[in-house]
Design goal:
Length: 199
């Protein structure tokens, strides 16, 4: 069964050591006037002042993966919990939740050509998409065309989703013979794995 092109960002798979998948969650801030939407599962970066912003396809060092936030919504006049940051000025800085654990593994879709078993061990860049306006989920994926040994790429390919499914191709993303298959990736060049500070 050919895969469907339906990226949903970077979703937690498990930790390398088999520990609780809720380990390594961190609270950060989004500036109330930040005007770029961030979806659930989007990679984010640290910026000066202690804030986070959505990563771009040229970013190398990530802070983590965005997993929702709460903020004072100016339109409804109360604090709301949301999967996404809307990208419009709000009544307060957002309290954002990110997965920053460098031992966490994530599932992500290839943005086009299938990623193969032979690619395991290589590093890879992301392809950033606009969040889904209905669900608030990310539409980001990994960019197959960037697979390389480059040490500053943000993710390491550590497996294919098909390796963890009993019937290859039965679940979307597990047909490794067609485009848009899903892979397991690990943080490679992240804040918590780098000695370079953010100012």
């Amino acid at each position: 069964m050919a895969n469907t092109n339906a990226p949903n960002g970077f979703q937690v798979f498990r930790r390398f050591d088999g520990g609780s998948p809720t380990e390594g969650y961190e609270t950060r801030k989004i500036l109330s006037t930040y005007n770029v939407a961030i979806g659930f599962g989007d990679p984010v970066i640290s910026v000066s002042g202690g804030y986070i912003q959505r990563a771009t396809a040229s970013t190398v060092q990530f802070a983590g993966i965005f997993f929702g936030c709460k903020y004072l919504n100016s339109s409804v006049g109360r604090v709301v919990w949301a999967n996404n940051w809307p990208g419009t000025t709000q009544g307060s800085d957002a309290e954002a939740y990110i997965v920053s654990d460098p031992q966490m593994l994530f599932v992500a879709q290839s943005n086009n050509t299938a990623i193969t078993f032979a690619d395991i061990g290589a590093n890879i860049q992301v392809s950033i998409g606009s969040p889904n306006s209905t669900t608030g989920y990310s539409t980001s994926s990994v960019d197959q065309s960037t697979i390389a040994t480059t040490d500053t790429l943000p993710f390491r390919i550590v497996g294919l989703l098909s390796q963890y499914e009993t019937t290859s191709g039965a679940i979307n993303g597990t047909d490794d013979a067609s485009a848009y298959n899903r892979v397991i990736v690990a943080p490679n060049y992240w804040d918590r794995k780098s000695l370079l500070g953010i100012v």
